[in-house]
Amino acid sequence: MLKWNSMETKQLEKVIKELQTNYKFIFNTDEGKKVLADLEKRCHYHSTTNVKGDSHESAYMEGQRSVLLFIKSMLQNENEKGNNHVKRTDNTGNCACRKDRNIYRTS
Q1: How far is the C-alpha of 92 from the C-alpha of 13, rounded, in Å?
Q2: pTM of the entire structure?
Q3: What is the pLDDT along the chain (107 residues), one digit of tens a residue?
Q4: Residue-range domain boundaries for the chain
Q5: Do residues 86 and 97 make contact, with C-beta atoms less than 8 angstroms apart?
Q6: How far is CA 5 from the centre of its chain?
Q7: Would you list the DSSP string of the chain?
Q8: Of the N and C termini of the chain, which has fewer Cβ atoms inside 10 Å?
């Protein structure tokens, strides 16, 4: 397991906080909101990424979706993280819910 000393942890937290500020600045503009809405459609935010019989395509689509989930996690406030469920539907219209994941963890 990788151990971080307190100085490295503080530096990493500072970098993450600055990045999060930048993400919020960009995606809270009118243009950024339009781009985010477009990414939700293109990156399977509300639909399944499972392609029956094609695990490679499923993995590719889930990779696209994971980038969007990361962006959305950077736009959340700290008190919202871990409490946000994403409602997705599979090809039959059934709910395939899953939690957003925070990629950066400092603990």
Answers
A1: 42
A2: 0.66
A3: 566 677 788 899 999 999 999 999 999 999 999 999 999 999 999 888 999 999 999 999 999 999 999 999 999 987 666 655 444 455 545 444 444 444 444 44
A4: 31-107
A5: yes
A6: 27
A7: -----HHHHHHHHHHHHHHHHHHHHHHTSHHHHHHHHHHHHHTTSSB----TT-HHHHHHHHHHHHHHHHHHHHHS-GGGTT-PEEP-B-TTS-B--EE---S----
A8: N
Distance CA 95, CA 10 (A): 40
Crossing angle of helices 6-27 and 55-75, rounded to 10°: 90
Residues 6 or more apart whose CB falls under 8 angstroms from that of 45 comprise 39, 65, 68, 86, 88
Q: What does the block give as tokens for 89?
A: 């539907």
